[in-house]
Write a structure and sequence with these properties.
26% strand; 19 helices; Rossmann fold; alpha/beta; 6-stranded mixed sheet; 20 strands
């Protein structure tokens, strides 16, 4: 008997059908994956199963757990979600309560579904189970890295010991080492607890490693289904073939701008943060960045890789002036600064593309308003000059000028990432810092964005500092790679040196944690 049965499921918003006639079943203990591009209906399907469809959605068809239809009342459905269905949401920062410490949020999941006696022992055990030190329980979500927040979400979902775990992109924010550990952890817990898994992802490598069966969705319809190994090794449908082909990165060795003199120097940068608590009457501090030295040449593409929490994003924020170094200095075109004291004239020369292209836009402002905001750094521009800059920027990233009047929610993930790049280009910078530029994108869109970055670098003579945990992407686009661990640079070299002959222990672990290409043995 199946644990979960979905029969002829259709979901509508008004007259628009977004999921159509979907049917599949998951057996107890089975690991089942759903793949497809953004907008294919993957997440809506999972929300329908959990009874969390947004307002305005209507559902037809049948969803049953252990042969019994899902309850109609929200009260009964809430009990079912808590005790029998666990869910890991795609955006941990929005799913976690910013006003509660991590341990309190995990404890709440235990108290709601089990008894108080389990809390004291299980909270530290759950944190340890997902690879976090129990001391992280005293922190708030904003004090954790993206990967750490994702692991907290997994711990909360496991707290109720569910029969079915629904995981929506649970590894998209994780570095390679943590991703592999989390995938292995989920597989081990599913086996030990005989827990079924519905795994939703655009990462075909992760699905291939974790799931025994897979369904492929396209525009709300099921287009292919079968054993995961068979579907990935010999896809039958054109759409599945396209996804499998797009999951492999091809090196982008197109024509590059000439390498010039040094543009950016990072000289002994250190960043300490205060922590709660005292040791011998001295306030604790966390050293996020520790004596970092490197330089970037004009026209170069430098990649900074490392596990979550190693200090990559903190360093990037200091470089672009969003944070201040505790010690050390940065020089951009020979001008020295320490972070947030970046001189105003230089702010036009350096731009940041944030990791989350949706969260970095104000949902109440049109794209044109958001893109024009950086132009305040250039006083004296009149309205026609500003409009010309906006058209130049959106056209450069392959979009149309008529999109400037739209709002962020009206764009796909790939379009939002292009708009984030356009906003970074609008001041005509010399250096572009990109924080995980393709981690949130579908496999079919990633290649388009990387090709776009290569073209823009040549056309505008840009210099890139790319921060990523995706070694395949880095190998395809970077000229040079820095590996960071615990705030320090531990290895440096060209991609072929770093990834084929790694010298440092961490680099060896990162390279060893890369998932094999689809259709190749693990």
């Amino acid at each position: 008997m199946s644990l979960l049965e979905v029969s002829d499921l259709s979901i509508r918003f008004g007259a628009t059908e977004v999921v159509s006639g979907l049917s599949f079943a998951i057996a107890p203990g089975e690991r089942f994956g759903i793949i497809g591009e953004s907008g294919s209906g993957k997440t809506l399907t999972s929300l329908a199963i959990a009874g969390l469809l947004p307002e305005g959605a209507s559902l037809t068809g049948r969803i049953a757990l252990d042969g019994a239809p899902m309850p109609a009342s929200e009260r009964d459905m809430a009990r079912l979600r808590g005790r029998r269905i666990g869910m890991v949401f795609q955006e941990p920062m929005t799913a976690l309560n910013p006003l509660m410490r991590v341990s309190e949020q995990i404890a709440e999941s235990i108290r709601l579904n089990r008894d108080n006696a389990a809390v004291q022992l299980e909270v530290p055990a759950l944190l340890g189970e997902v690879g976090l030190d129990p001391s992280h329980g005293s922190r708030f979500p904003h004090q954790l890295s993206g990967g750490q927040r994702q692991r907290v979400m997994i711990a909360m979902a496991l707290a109720s010991q569910p029969d079915l775990l629904i995981a929506d992109e649970p590894t998209s924010a994780l570095d390679l080492i943590t991703q592999r550990k989390v995938l292995d952890l989920i597989a081990e817990i599913c086996a030990r607890r005989h827990m079924a898994l519905l795994f939703i992802s655009h990462d075909l490598k992760a699905v291939a490693r974790l799931c025994t069966r897979v369904a492929v969705m396209h525009r709300g319809r099921l287009v292919e289904r079968g054993e995961a190994a068979q579907v990935f090794a010999s896809p039958q449908q054109d759409y599945t073939q396209k996804l499998v082909a797009a999951s492999r990165f091809d090196p982008l060795r197109a024509e590059r701008p000439p390498i010039g003199g040094t543009l950016l120097e990072v000289d002994g940068v250190t960043r300490d943060y205060r922590q709660n608590g005292f040791v011998f009457w001295a306030e604790k501090s966390l050293r996020a960045v520790n004596e970092v030295h490197f330089s970037v040449a004009q026209g170069e593409c430098l990649a900074l890789v490392g596990p979550s929490g190693c200090g990559k994003t903190t360093l990037a924020k200091i470089i672009v002036g969003l944070d201040r170094a505790t010690s050390g200095a940065i020089r951009l075109d020979g001008t020295s600064y320490h972070g947030s004291d970046l001189p105003k004239p230089l702010r036009r020369d350096i731009s940041l593309v944030f990791q989350d292209p949706f969260g970095s836009f104000n949902p109440r402002r049109s794209i044109g308003d958001s893109l024009s905001e950086p132009l305040r750094l250039e006083p004296g521009l009149d309205r026609p000059a500003i409009d010309a800059r906006l058209v130049e920027a959106v056209t450069a990233v392959g979009l149309h000028a008529d999109m400037l009047d739209r709002y962020p929610h009206e764009f796909s993930g790939g379009q939002r990432q292009r708009l984030a790049i356009a906003r970074a280009l609008v001041t005509r910078p010399k250096l572009l810092v990109l924080d995980e530029p393709v981690s949130a994108l579908d496999v079919s869109v990633r290649g388009e964005v990387l090709a776009l970055l290569a073209r823009l670098q040549l056309e505008f003579g840009l210099t890139y500092l790319i921060i990523s945990h995706d070694l395949d992407m880095v190998a395809a686009i970077a000229d040079r790679v820095l590996v960071m661990e615990a705030g320090r640079i531990v290895e440096e070299g060209r991609p072929e040196q770093i990834f084929f002959a790694p010298q440092h222990r961490l680099t060896q672990e990162l390279v060893g944690a890369r998932l094999p290409d689809i259709g190749t043995p693990a």
